[in-house]
From TrEMBL:
Gene3D superfamilies listed in its UniProt record: 1.10.150.130, Integrase, DNA-binding domain, Intergrase catalytic core
InterPro entries: DNA_brk_join_enz, Integrase-like_cat_sf, Integrase_catalytic, Integrase_DNA-bd_sf, Integrase_DNA_bind_dom, Integrase_recombinase_N, Phage_int_M, Phage_Integrase
Protein name, per record: Phage integrase
Organism: Psychrobacter alimentarius
Ranges of residues in domain Tyr recombinase: 249-438
Signal peptide: none
Alphabetically ordered keywords of this record: DNA integration, DNA recombination, DNA-binding
Family: Belongs to the 'phage' integrase family.
TM stretches of this protein: none
Keyword Ubl conjugation belongs to the record: no
Keyword DNA-binding: yes
One Pfam family in the UniProt entry: Phage_int_M
Length: 503
């Protein structure tokens, strides 16, 4: 009887004593530790009940659980460490927006789960490893990534090659062999930090590639969930915050005040470089007027010109956003295009490299710009893509609306049939904008002082009215093409009638 009483007393008071040793850390206390300078050596901050916050000299903080376990092969229990997760990576900064990757509460929950496994005679570290290796081949991250890339084959070849490069060169060696459901947030973070570290060895403080790889990992998780039906959480969302912030580089382009010299240098390119192609001059001149992506100009076909409406219609399979794109052509642009007709019309392409017997390569514009001296000396660096930057900035200075500029740059996704025709309805304004832009470039060439004043209301109304009829014709033409296409696909007359009313 006395022994039982002593056991009860021990259980009551012993339990209380154990509780007093537990929950030693607080959220604010851990955050204060995170704000401290990195120590010279590893420091362990105990929360009690085997859970510790490890403060590393590299500035990171992570959770560990200490435990003893005796396997069938062991003569006696061994001291082991279970890695729970990262509180703060070495690259994260503590500010008002900081959120721990694994909070104190989450660490305690994971510790309790590990303790429950130990109570059942299971080594939590071995269990974690088994879980990662308990899978079918189709569940591997690399298999799902391949399926995702196959789906992306509908986009441009260049985009697919870029994504495949991110996987082959950076991501798959870290995550490829794991089933997607077993990958943890910490696995993703470690992958991003490893990619960033590779670029640090090359002397780069931040890495755009590391951030893009993290975005690709998240996209593959979304694909697995939304398309393949995996019942998992996208644990990759937001994990790029563990990396150093990356400031995107401005595309290489001259400044606005240097634009007139660039225009004049383009005009004189053949005179200054006798071996230069006249097509190169025409291509660069048209690029300044239309500011399309270089691949769209290089693959420009005569069949894409609508002479009745004076527009260039680029089919969606040539566009980055996979949407049809309409470019109103100013009189100056039409004149440049017509100069090419006797030379290239029989090839089917507006610009054609007869030396290689195919359209010009990606290096076409960049090589010409480099020959002109746009390499940083004597002129700033400039690329074919930089004309889009110049046009965007210039059109803002001319006080055109952001939405109009973004539409013409083909930056806006058209997510519905209605949006498709919203864009067509802006054609009158876009035609006016493209004509104004062409005249503005002529003034820059001539060295005229440019006024950025808005048009008077009556002047704007006059210009708009002169183009409204043309814009309406284009919208009606596109509407008719859409209706006929849907009819061919077997859409009912009732649905077509309702659609026609909305359009």
């Amino acid at each position: 009887m006395l022994l039982n009483l002593l056991l009860k007393i021990f259980n009551i008071f012993g339990s209380g004593m154990n509780n007093r040793k537990d929950y030693l850390l607080t959220d604010n206390g851990v955050k204060s530790i995170a704000k401290q300078s990195a120590p010279d050596k590893i420091v362990r901050h105990s929360d009690g009940n085997s859970l510790s916050l490890i403060q590393h000299p590299n500035g990171s903080l992570f959770w560990q659980m200490s435990y003893r376990y005796q396997s069938d092969k062991d003569i006696k229990p061994k001291q082991k460490t279970y890695q729970i997760g990262i509180y703060k990576s070495s690259k994260q900064f503590i500010d008002a927006s900081f959120k721990p990757l694994v909070s104190l509460k989450q660490a305690r929950i994971e510790r309790d789960k590990a303790k429950a496994l130990l109570a059942d005679g299971i080594d939590p570290t071995a269990h974690k490893s088994i879980e990662k290796n308990n899978f079918e081949q189709k569940d591997l991250f690399k298999a799902i990534a391949k399926s995702y890339i196959d789906e992306k084959s509908k986009t441009t070849v260049k985009n697919v090659q870029k994504l495949q490069g991110f996987l082959d060169n950076h991501i798959l060696k870290h995550l490829g062999a794991y089933p997607i459901g077993a990958i943890t947030a910490q696995d993703v973070i470690r992958t991003g930090l490893a990619i960033q570290a590779d670029f640090e060895k090359q002397g780069k403080h931040t890495s755009e590639t590391a951030h893009k790889c993290m975005g690709l990992i998240s996209s593959i998780f979304e694909y697995a969930i939304n398309t393949l039906g995996y019942d998992i959480t996208n644990i990759a969302i937001g994990r790029n915050k563990a990396l150093r912030p990356h400031k995107a580089e401005r595309m290489k382009a001259v400044e606005q005040h240097q634009f007139p010299d660039l225009l004049r240098n383009i005009d004189q390119y053949v005179n200054n470089y006798p071996n230069a192609h006249t097509q190169t001059v025409a291509g660069l001149q048209l690029m300044t007027l239309c500011f399309v992506r270089t691949i769209e100009l290089r693959k420009f076909e005569w069949s894409e010109i609508d002479y009745h409406k004076n527009v260039w219609r680029i089919p969606k399979d040539k566009m980055k956003m996979r949407q049809d794109h309409i470019i109103p052509l100013s009189p100056q642009a039409m004149a440049i295009i017509e100069r090419m007709r006797p030379l290239t019309e029989h090839t089917g392409y507006v610009f054609y490299n007869f030396e290689s017997n195919k359209p010009y390569s990606e290096a076409w514009f960049n090589q010409a710009l480099q020959r002109m001296g746009y390499t940083g000396d004597p002129y700033p660096k400039m690329t074919g893509h930089g004309f889009r930057q110049l046009a965007s900035t210039g059109l803002y200075e001319l006080q055109f609306s952001e939405s109009l500029i973004e539409i013409q740059l083909a930056h806006l996704e058209q997510s519905s049939v209605r949006r498709r025709y919203d864009l067509s309805e802006h054609l009158a304004e876009r035609q006016m904008m493209m004509n104004r832009w062409a005249n503005y470039l002529d003034d820059l060439r001539a060295g005229k002082a440019i006024s950025f004043d808005l048009l008077a209301p009556d002047e704007l109304a006059k210009e708009m009215n002169s183009r409204n009829e043309q814009a309406t014709d284009i919208a009606l033409h596109d509407k008719d093409v859409l209706i006929k296409s849907l009819q061919a696909q077997g859409v009912s007359q009732e649905v077509l009638a309702k659609l026609a009313e909305q359009l």
